[in-house]
Amino acid sequence: MKAVSMYSPYGWKAKIGLIVPSTNTINEPEFWRMAPPGVTIHTDRVMLLGKATEKSYFEMADALSQASDRLATAEVDVIAYGCTSGSIICPLPELLDQMGSRTKTPATAAAGGVVAGLRALGAKNIAVGTPYVTFVNESEKRFLEEDYGFNVVSMHGMQLGETQEERRGIGRVPPQQVYRLAQMIDRPEADALFISCTNLASLDVIEDIERDLGKPVVISNQACFWSCLRLLGLPTPVEGYGRLMRECLDPITMDAFKPGMKRLIA
């Protein structure tokens, strides 16, 4: 047994631990679609109830410790929090410490992966599309501009989140609507587009958007998964899901970020 004590039949390169809101039905299948051979995804959930409120995000954050403890028993190699708005509204460094300390692994979150991905693409001026209600959009704009130095040149939210049913409904938005959203937010001065939310199905249209608008696109699940691969030191290019997955293959380290910048990884 000692000879195979580190072996995993399917996750022989790495096992990714993923924590998602309980209503999320998109993050897991999109992670699996992007996974190269030898990389597996192992998921836990934190309860999400009611309409979008600041309290609902902090209740999910409080539940991350128990979810991380459960994933630690699966011997995951990296842990990710698959909630963009939750890792924007709740302090990102604290979320990362909370997860990483429980699993003893590198930790990332959707919002941190997005920032790291935009920086890897050299973007400064960004156009942002979301499914969120106004207070979440305002929080996201502050996060991007005040915490990480981007310039948001346009932003549009679909205003989904007044009820729990609307929050679940984000997972029913057709990818074709995401394509139209990208067209709506694009501006000549935008270096890149950011489509936010891990429950918004976007993988099917990312290559179409990049081709037709002529600029890179970062989406929450793509960026979060990309950050997992980079933290694991896996330089595998993954085709079909945008320039970030195909071209930006350097490992993420703290050396990549300016002094004083809030942490994106742990």
TrEMBL record:
A Pfam cross-reference name: Amdase
Gene3D superfamilies: 3.40.50.12500
Superkingdom field: Bacteria
Record's protein name: Decarboxylase
Species the sequence originates in: Agaricicola taiwanensis
